[in-house]
């Protein structure tokens, strides 16, 4: 099988999140599966990942790319919208999403409240965005931070110039 490269923006974000071997990670909007692949490579033992995407194409691509992690029992991939997440993922240590616009283009209070219920104390929600359109950054920052703060997370911001990425991190 051809070796698939991991985009620099995804690598930066996953490195920032500092995955630990026994983490329980939820990814929202897994798309190509690049982040799921990289995260699963860092899990061992009890470490588990649950990746969701509301699009069938995203789920198919992730399942294909990450077949070895699914077979190893580390990764579960489901076609589901975050708003209807009804799966037994109650003890998450980390939530990851890259370029999932839901968090800044519309009211996402219910979805973020649902994440707050499922993230363990000390755990975090890590929402990253590509900043190649700098004019969008102020709105991404204000709306995403407000959603996390309202749900009860402590929020801080991280950024990188190259690759151009911003992260809004909510700690429970
Ligand atoms: C712009 S793509 C980014 C894909 C990948 N994270 C990346 O950075 O390459 C956004 C993805 O999030 C998914 N998505 C958007 N809103 C979602 C939601 N509410 N629940 C689950 N998936 C969602 C879309 O189907 C799409 O695959």
From TrEMBL:
Record's protein name: Methyltransferase domain-containing protein
InterPro entries, A to Z: Methyltransf_25, SAM-dependent_MTases_sf
Residues spanning the signal sequence: none
Annotated ranges, domain Methyltransferase: 25-123
Organism: Nocardioides panacisoli
Record-linked Pfam families: Methyltransf_25
């Amino acid at each position: 099988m051809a070796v698939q490269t991991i985009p620099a923006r995804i690598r930066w974000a996953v490195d920032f999140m500092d995955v630990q071997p026994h983490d329980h990670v939820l990814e929202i909007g897994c798309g190509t599966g690049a982040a799921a692949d990289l995260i699963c490579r860092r899990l061992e033992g009890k470490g588990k990942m649950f990746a969701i995407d509301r699009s069938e194409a995203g789920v198919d691509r992730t399942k294909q790319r990450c077949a070895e992690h699914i077979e190893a029992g580390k990764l579960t991939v489901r076609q589901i919208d975050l708003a209807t997440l009804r799966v037994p993922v109650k003890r998450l240590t980390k939530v990851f999403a890259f370029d999932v616009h839901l968090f800044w283009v519309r009211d996402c209070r219910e979805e973020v409240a649902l994440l707050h219920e499922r993230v363990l104390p000390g755990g975090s929600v890590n929402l990253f965005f590509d900043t190649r359109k700098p004019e969008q950054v102020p709105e991404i920052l204000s709306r995403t931070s407000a959603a996390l703060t309202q749900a009860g997370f402590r929020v801080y911001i991280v950024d990188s110039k190259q690759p151009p990425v911003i992260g809004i991190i909510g700690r429970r």
